[in-house]
Amino acid sequence: MKVSIFDVAKKSGLSVVTVSRVLNGAETVREKNRQKVLDAIKELGYHPNAAARSLARGKTGIIGLIVTTLQDSFFDAVVKELNEVLALHGYYLAISVSTGIGSDESHYLIQEDRVDGLILLSPMEEDNYIVELKKRGIPYVLIDNQKPENDNFSVTIDNFKGGYAAASHLLDNGYTSIAHLCGQEMFRSTRERRDGFMQALSERGLAPFEIVNGDFEIRFGYETAVRWLKEGQLPQAVFAGDDNIALGVVNALMEAGVQVPGQVAVVGYDDQTISSQLHPYLTTVRQPADRIGIAAADMLLKRIDGTMKRGANLKIDPELIVRESSVPGRRA
Hints:
- This protein is of the alpha/beta class.
- Helices cover 44% and strands 15% of the residues.
- It has three domains: 1-46, 434 Repressor (Amino-terminal Domain), CATH 1.10.260.40; 49-156 and 289-318, 3-Layer(aba) Sandwich (Rossmann fold); 159-287 and 320-326, Response regulator (Rossmann fold).
- The protein is built from twelve helices and twelve strands.
- A six-stranded parallel beta sheet has the order 2-1-3-4-5-11, with helices on both faces.
- The protein is elongated, with a radius of gyration of 23 Å.
- The chain starts with a helix and ends in an 11-residue tail after the last strand.
């Protein structure tokens, strides 16, 4: 039997009017009651009639999402959260995997009347997108954007804190010779994570073993560690700019019989799914995909319904997850 709005009202103990207000993103609903409605919707598996609601609002009922890749468990988790939250509000999520505004997929999404709003996840040509979206009057939200000057209507991670936390963790465990393998300079996250790392070392009067830029790929970490082995010089610890780089380092070291973390400690970034599945379990800095997705969806919905007119940047703190790869003797 199909679940109706009346079933949701009964389950939550609230009126149909209140449920309707929650579904339409009204700001007049108390947070406690809003959560009751959302919990009831999830438990009952209720799906609003998006077509009917779209007609009533004069909207398409579609939110566009442009992302550079889905071959990333962090991005996947953010997209999953966005999809769930937007579905609760009667929206469908249309996803375009695109590296630039000139692609057919992204061009289709930002045409007038195609979408009610657009989310850009880690965009590479954000200036061009923003110009076009403003011209067409399409509400948008950026996630993990590259330029601070575009922080209006954005959700970002405090990557400086993440880099600082990773370095401080290694320093607190007695490591003083620490290398940092980071991403390309074009990425804001690269620059901010490195700045946090350097700040932590500077406070202890230390310099890094080495800082190397490369791609966020396993091969980069692997080849750098192989070079260190050939040169006969290894750092005591490595802070990798993402988990893929960290896994490459671990692979090269373990192939050469170097113990991780017995001889070299390793810390990654992102908390990709694989980081807790391979031994040694990887210490990493988690980006809370659930909070990011919820915050971005909420911001966009407020822009669409007109309750958010002034720009705002929401910066979310990452979390250090300590596992085997950085603390000898530790078990996850």
